[in-house]
Design goal:
Helix content is about 30%, strand content about 15%. It is an alpha+beta fold. It has a five-stranded antiparallel β-sheet with strand order 1-2-3-4-5, with helices on one face. α3 packs across α4.
């Protein structure tokens, strides 16, 4: 038998052994104690996860997901990955609501979103800068805060700070919350369809 005919057999055998090794799970050995004694406490490294149970595959850490052979759906929620205290729905809603302007700062881990200065159409002598802060993981009205800076151009060519009515900031917060409600419904529908 030539070398070329043995190579596929060797590759097939190696692949079979790798698949068996990847799929096998064995329980960790436990120290035997005196009869009737309580079992020793386990440390966090030795605790079993849901992926360690027979018949379950950790779909986030194996190649089985890529091949489409995973036995359970992804446990990650839909949407962008954000920090532990930042709602992914509110984060995406803020980005969608302010999509008409360029961002200078985007930090999904802390929930801060800052726009660049921009002038509305037809008003070149005034400009705005918007700061959005996502303050909580839950979808509620006090989980998002908006501040708007406004400047006007003086006849001397200098930008000077002016005030913005609180209603403008409240209206922008309400727009972000409305978009978040839409996204939540869309993501629930998409997640249920998986």
């Amino acid at each position: 038998m030539s070398f070329h005919y043995r190579l596929p057999a060797v590759l097939a055998a190696s692949l079979s052994l790798m698949l068996v090794a990847c799929g096998s799970t064995r329980p960790a050995p436990q120290a035997a104690g005196p009869p009737g004694a309580a079992s020793p406490p386990q440390d966090a490294a030795n605790l079993k996860t849901a992926a360690d149970t027979p018949g379950e595959i950790d779909t986030e850490a194996t190649i089985w997901t890529v091949l489409g052979l995973a036995k359970k759906p992804s446990q990650h929620p839909p949407g962008p990955h954000t920090g532990n205290t930042v709602s992914p729905i509110l984060w995406q809603a803020a980005r969608d609501t302010l999509s008409f302007v360029k961002f200078t700062t985007e930090d999904p881990l802390t929930g801060e979103l800052v726009t660049d200065w921009y002038s509305p159409k037809g008003k070149p002598n005034e400009r705005y800068k918007i700061d959005v802060f996502v303050l909580a993981r839950t979808l509620r009205s006090d989980a998002v805060a908006v501040t708007i800076d406004r400047q006007e151009l003086t006849p001397a060519g200098q930008w000077t700070e002016t005030t913005v009515a609180r209603k403008v900031e409240d209206d922008l917060e309400a727009a972000i919350l409305r978009r978040a409600g839409q996204l939540k419904r869309e993501w629930i529908k998409a997640y249920a369809a998986q």
